[in-house]
Design a protein that fits this description.
Elements: H1 16-28, H2 31-43, E1 50-54, H3 59-70, E2 74-78, H4 87-95, E3 99-101, H5 108-119, E4 125-128, H6 132-139, E5 150-153, H7 156-167, E6 174-177, H8 182-205, E7 213-217, H9 221-232, E8 236-240, H10 244-252, E9 256-257, H11 260-263, E10 269-272, H12 282-285, E11 292-296, H13 306-312, E12 313-320, E13 323-328, E14 333-337, H14 343-346, H15 353-373, E15 380-382, H16 386-400, H17 409-415
Parallel strand pairs: 1-2, 1-4, 2-3, 4-5, 5-6, 6-15, 7-8, 7-10, 8-9, 10-11, 11-14
Antiparallel strand pairs: 12-13, 13-14
Helix pairs in contact: 1-3, 1-4, 2-3, 2-15, 3-15, 5-6, 8-9, 8-15, 15-16
Length: about 425
């Protein structure tokens, strides 16, 4: 059933108790956000500010939403992927008084409607994951744009879309490139993606990784993390790349590098992390071994060309929950996880709470930066101030009980001098 809680559109409000338990659990493991929640509750920096948020709607995102609400924000929340919303978490958030518009397995039409509903309150600040809120504002709701002060983008894919808009001169307000913050991509993309991809693959397939060949498409920070974790689990790792510098880096990190055409017959498990379309397509499917497993860890479900996979198959079956088996004319089976959507969320719970603690702290403090500085910012894509990265890194170290050295005045003078001794 579909149900409502005040201004929300969710699957079932009766699931709220379990959702709250999930949110409470991640809160206990997100010390930076917990500190920010205490600070925001005292200072109310978002009082009267309307925030629309579209991020994968699971417990960690819900807690970020509650942290912003503790600072006075009027939150309107939706998901950024039809298969990553957890209905119990959505119910728990709605039961706590936030407006939530999302449910698991939404149709394309329902997903679009949820995006629109999240914008209907006329936001001042946008928190986006992949760019769907930004796209809807510019295309469907341009009348709301004058009230938007700016926003924050979580992902590589979303930032690519924003920079394309900036180049074309159509981006109408400032956006903070959260993904490019050091406390985001160095940790979330590498350690978060690396672990959560294999958490999801292992949970979904119940198969071993050790001894298999894992093909990783793309060797950016996410690809580095996936390759590192695959190696740690005992796999042989093959990397495919279009960037010669990244290809050399993969070689020097100890991995094989091949074109996808040559990697296709070798792989037991494929993970795409490029942000591009048709990374694995028809000619590759034709060369894959029986039982090959395909998964995607990029934002959109376009990296594996599903229409070509369907066209080559003679039968399709649900082999296991979240595993679609495609039988080819020669009898081979190729398996696709999570409909080719973001595997760590479509088939799992996403990144670990401790990792998202850092990423969502960047989101929260970047949203605060927009509130405090929007009058001085022009439309465009902006980097995260170094002071935000430094503050989050310091808070993270403190949560570990770790201190570091600081420069003496003499050392600062030495480093700042050009004249030598």
């Amino acid at each position: 059933m579909n149900s409502r809680k005040e201004g929300s559109h969710i699957r079932d409000i009766s699931l709220a108790a379990e959702g709250r338990r999930k949110i409470d659990w991640v809160k206990r493991n997100m010390p930076i956000l917990s500190r920010l929640e205490e600070e925001f509750a005292r200072t109310k920096p978002f009082a009267g500010v309307k925030i629309s948020l579209s991020v994968h709607l699971e417990a960690k995102t819900a807690y970020l939403s509650k942290v912003l609400a503790s600072g006075g924000a009027q939150m309107s929340v939706t998901g950024s992927n039809p298969l990553s919303t957890q209905d119990d978490v959505a119910a728990g958030l709605a039961a706590d008084g936030l407006d939530v518009h999302a449910w698991y397995g939404s149709t394309p039409e329902e997903y679009e409607k949820h995006i629109e509903q999240a914008l209907e309150h006329g936001p001042n600040v946008i928190i986006d994951d992949g760019g769907d809120l930004i796209h809807a504002l510019h295309v469907t709701f341009p009348n709301l744009v004058p009230e938007v002060w700016g926003g924050c983008e979580e992902t590589t894919t979303g930032i690519l879309r924003l920079k394309a808009m900036e180049r074309e001169g159509v981006l109408r307000f400032p956006m903070m490139a959260v993904n490019d913050a050091m406390c985001k991509h160095l940790f979330d993309n590498r350690y978060g993606t690396g672990q959560s991809v294999f958490d999801a693959i292992d949970r979904t397939t119940n198969l071993i990784v050790a001894g298999k060949t894992v093909v990783v498409a793309g060797y950016g920070w996410c690809g580095k993390g996936v390759a590192m974790r695959a190696k740690g689990l005992g796999a042989k790792v093959v990397v495919t790349e279009i960037d010669p510098v990244k290809a050399i880096e993969a070689i020097m990190d100890g991995f094989s590098v091949l074109p996808m055409q040559d990697a296709a017959p070798l792989g037991d498990i494929f993970v795409t992390v490029t942000g591009c379309e048709k990374v694995i397509h028809g000619e590759h499917f034709a060369r894959m071994k029986n039982g090959a497993i395909l998964s995607n860890a990029g934002h959109f479900n376009v990296e594996i060309c599903i229409p070509e996979l369907e066209a080559q198959s003679v039968a399709v079956e649900e082999s296991r929950k979240n595993i679609t088996g495609y039988r080819m004319a020669d009898g081979r089976f190729i398996y696709l996880l999570g409909e080719g959507r973001l595997v760590n969320l479509a088939c799992g719970d996403g990144h670990p709470a401790e990792i998202m603690d850092m990423s969502f702290a960047v989101q929260a403090l970047s949203a605060l930066y927009i509130v405090e500085n929007h009058k001085n910012l022009k439309p465009g894509v902006f980097g995260i101030p170094d002071a935000i990265d430094a503050r989050i890194a310091k808070m993270k170290l403190e949560s570990f009980g770790i201190g570091i050295d600081t420069l003496t005045d003499a050392q600062k003078a030495y480093l700042g001098s050009w004249a030598g001794e």
